[in-house]
Amino acid sequence: MVKKRTCVFISGQGSNLKNLIFHSRDKSFPIEISLVISNNKNAKGIIYAKKFDIPYVIINAKHRNSDNKILKNLKKFKISFICLAGYMKIISNKIVKKFEKKIINIHPSLLPKYKGLNTYTKILRNYEKKTGCTVHYVNNKLDDGAIIVKKIFYVNSNDNKITLKKKTQIMEYKAYPEAIVKIFRNR
Ligand code: GAR
To answer: Is residue 86 located within the same domain as residue 118?
Structure first.
């Protein structure tokens, strides 16, 4: 099996990046992580690119030329698939068009509920009975696009932001690889 050359976009901790790197070492997993792009030079997740010898580039999304820089790197590293993993910027139309149906994202809620930031605060404030995570295709709107995998769990009355995040991320580490396998099984 020829693995898809994949770029993971991050902004912070990179625990989903680490999980995807771990899965990609399995022969039968459909992607290999060939590049990491971070918009934040201080993103902790960069440590995983370094540790596993994966090329990485920092591209400040506020810079005028950032789209071109991103596209140039995706071309240079022959990238054909993109996973957003805690990338806190909207992907521009220009990039979405070039990589149509080839960019996916993970979000810590049951989309379409609770798009955007401060997800756990909003879930707790609304006394949601259940929550989870969603992997979806990316379009040019925030946390939008066709859903690939959703994972659900029940919120306890004593849950807080920290426990919700922990529980959600445990689900994410299952959901993201599962979504990737599902995509390529159907292609
Ligand atoms: C993840 O929980 C992901 O769902 C969320 O950021 C976290 C990144 O964690 N993404 C979003 O909120 C996107 N809208 P990580 O850096 O440890 O993978």
So the answer is: no
